[in-house]
Specification:
Helices cover 23% and strands 25% of the residues. The protein contains 3 helices and 9 strands, in the order H-E-H-E-E-E-H-E-E-E-E-E. The strands form 4 sheets. Strands 5-6-7 form a 3-stranded antiparallel beta sheet, with helices on one face. It has a two-stranded parallel sheet with strand order 1-2. The protein has a two-stranded parallel sheet with strand order 3-4. Strand 5 and strand 6 form a beta hairpin.
Length: 179
Amino acid sequence: YTFYPPQVPPEYASTSSSSASQVAVPLVDMIAALRDVAAEAGRPDLPLAVTEFGWPVWDPVDAQEQADWAERSVLLGLSRGVGTWCAYTLLSRPGTTAEDRFGMADGEDGTLLPYGQRFADLSLRLAGLTEAAPLPLAAGQHGVALRFEDGTLREVGWGVGQAELNGATMALGGTPVGW
C-alpha cells in the first residue's frame, strides 16, 4: 500500500497530501516502477506477485467498492504481466479496526462476502487466459483486452462515460463490464 489503511481505488493518484507517506500511487505506476528496477538489475522478465492485497470495508470503502477495486486491480495487473495475487486475509472478523475488515469471507460463518464472490467469479472468467493487455481508452476510462486459449478475445472496461467494448457501446461505471 502507498498508505494505510488503503481507501482509494487502484487507478487513483493523489498529487498532494499532508504527509509524504499518504500520497496514493496508482497500481500500474507501482508495477511499472518494479519493472524498471527488475530491468536495471538485468531481469526484465522477472515474475511479479502482488501480496497482502486488498481493501478493508472501512469508511469510506463499502463492500461493493472493495469487490470492484479488487477486480479492477487484478485486471490492471494482468495487463501489466502480474500473474500472482495473494489476498491480505481470507476472513473478515467483527472488530473495531480496519485490520479486521479485509476478508473475502465472514469469519464467523464462512459465507463469501462480495469480495470473495467476485474472486470466485474471476477465477471462472479468467480460466484459460493466455494474454492480457491494456486498452487505449479516453481519460477517466480503463480497460483490458483478454485473450483465451480458444482464441476468444474479451474487452473489459470501467470508468466514466461510454466506451466501445467487444464491438458494442457500453456504459461504464465502477464495476467492470464487457465480460
